[in-house]
Design brief:
The protein has 274 residues and is α/β, with parallel strands linked by helices. Helices cover 42% and strands 15% of the residues. It has eleven helices and seven strands. The protein is globular, with a radius of gyration of 17 Å.
């Protein structure tokens, strides 16, 4: 199963194809601690007009866990490579790639490596760097991130229960935070710890100016993980990109505000895929 041979990525990443076989392609990439199920409120609306490609990152959901390699996935490039392999195996072209959270930067890496394969990029709640830096607000101090990773190492299930509601926001709808916590808890703790390090210690700011495909940056009005300044930074760094602030809060608007998220993705994808 762990082979990287022919037919490899489609099986390895549990790829699911839905929607119109002849439609423009929209590929949905989930974030840390999640799997393709997080798109379930948005995907059906896209399936009417598009060919929708869902998948699980290696280590998540129903992916082939035996294919997880700590060296390959110590950098976001390993995940970007998987996206490009899926596209190659299925011969997908003119793809509109939607990346949520850490997959926004995975998407940036994928489209800068093979821009000819992509018609557009949607960055949903992106952050190119979570740690504050001189003249840059990522939303976390280095001490914050160290503490977050330490608590994740010492008690993954406790961390999941505590952090999921913070990430999700929308405290008046606790079921959303519970769903995210349950998703975290389904992830192998060893893999989750490694992916958290790769995610929260990443710095992809220098990759942003190299994006050459039409790009839509979607952010929420308040998000504990990616403050508004981050969305504005991403927009300023990616040539010709557009920033839209959704009528939504929290870090997972595809669950908390699926209609607004769907509308923004669908209208962008329809124009990009022409």
């Amino acid at each position: 199963m762990g082979s990287m041979g022919s037919g490899g990525a489609v099986e390895r990443n549990n790829v699911v194809l839905r929607g119109r076989a002849d439609g423009p392609v929209v590929m949905l990439a989930h974030g840390f601690g999640c799997d393709q199920n997080l798109w379930r409120l948005v995907a059906p609306g896209l399936e009417r007009d598009f060919r929708v490609v869902l998948f699980d990152h290696v280590g998540a959901g129903h992916s082939d866990l035996s294919a997880w390699d700590p060296q390959r996935y110590a950098m976001l490039d390993g995940y970007a490579d998987d996206i490009l392999r899926i596209c190659a195996e299925l011969d997908l072209r003119q793809v509109v790639l939607v990346g949520h959270s850490v997959s926004a930067m995975i998407g940036v890496l994928a489209v800068t490596r093979e821009p000819q394969r992509f018609a557009g990029l949607v960055l949903l709640c992106p952050s190119p760097r979570y740690v504050d830096d001189a003249g840059y607000r990522g939303g976390f101090s280095q001490a914050d991130i160290d503490e977050l990773l330490d608590s994740l190492d010492s008690n993954y299930l406790g961390w999941s229960a505590a952090m999921a509601p913070v990430i999700m926001g929308n405290p008046e709808r606790p079921e959303l935070g519970e769903e995210l916590a349950n998703s975290f808890c389904r992830t192998d703790p060893l893999i989750a710890r490694a992916f958290a390090r790769t995610t929260f210690l990443s710095d992809n700011r220098s990759d942003l100016p190299h994006v050459t495909v039409p790009t839509l940056v979607l952010q929420c009005s308040s998000d504990a993980i990616a403050p508004p300044e981050v969305g504005e930074f991403v927009r300023a760094q990616i040539p010709g990109s557009r920033l839209v602030t959704l009528a939504a809060t929290g870090h997972c608007p595809q669950l908390s505000a699926p209609d607004a998220t769907l509308a923004a993705i669908a209208s962008f994808a329809a124009v990009s895929a022409r």
